[in-house]
Design a protein that fits this description.
With 169 residues, the chain is largely without helices or strands. 7% of the residues lie in helices and 4% in strands. It has a domain of 34 residues. It has a two-stranded antiparallel ribbon with strand order 1-2. It is rod-shaped. The termini are close together. This is DUF2382 domain-containing protein.
Length: 169
């Protein structure tokens, strides 16, 4: 916008003297700044603080239970079987394929299994413990104040308002 107060009023500047002023420029020429009023408004400013929401205690406890495990154990048993008289007339007794002579003594070993129970600690489960952040959006209500200029003309006063875009800064 051209400021005509500093124009060459004598008409010595041919570019300015030859251009007739527009209606808007005439109004601006006649206006005298009386003052500037700042109108203010409130704005929300949100501050966030991190605080302890609680805690979780983690412990390992031992739970005991009695279990029964079936185990098959083998025991040898000596079986003595009487067979009637032999057709050949002999009373020969054989052990392990060799005959037992009268008065001779041999031993047979009889075995049995015994269970030995022992305990071992093994990993039965793995538990992963972690934290993650969950973001939630909350809406907070607030009443904000804003200043507006109220023009109350008294008497024969003409008031012309222009939107802020029309004013030159």
């Amino acid at each position: 916008m051209t400021d005509r107060r500093n124009d060459d009023r004598d008409g010595l500047n041919p570019t300015l003297a030859s251009t007739p002023p527009t209606q808007h420029e005439v109004e601006v020429q006649d206006m005298q700044l009386q003052g500037v009023i700042e109108l203010r408004e409130e704005r929300l400013i949100v501050h966030k603080e991190r605080e302890v929401a609680g805690s979780v205690a983690l412990t390992r406890e031992v739970r005991r239970e009695t279990v029964q495990v079936p185990v098959e154990l083998v025991t040898e048993v000596l079986v003595v079987e009487h067979l009637g008289s032999g057709a050949e007339g002999g009373h020969a007794i054989t052990l392990d394929g060799t005959p037992l002579a009268p008065g001779e003594r041999r031993e047979l070993v009889v075995y049995r299994e015994e269970a030995q129970v022992e305990k071992r600690v093994v990993v039965s489960e793995q538990v992963k413990i972690s934290k993650r952040q969950v973001v939630e959006t909350r809406t907070f209500d607030a009443t904000l104040a804003r200043e507006e200029l109220v023009v109350d003309p008294q008497g024969d006063v003409e008031v012309t308002e222009r939107p802020p875009e029309a004013l030159d800064r």
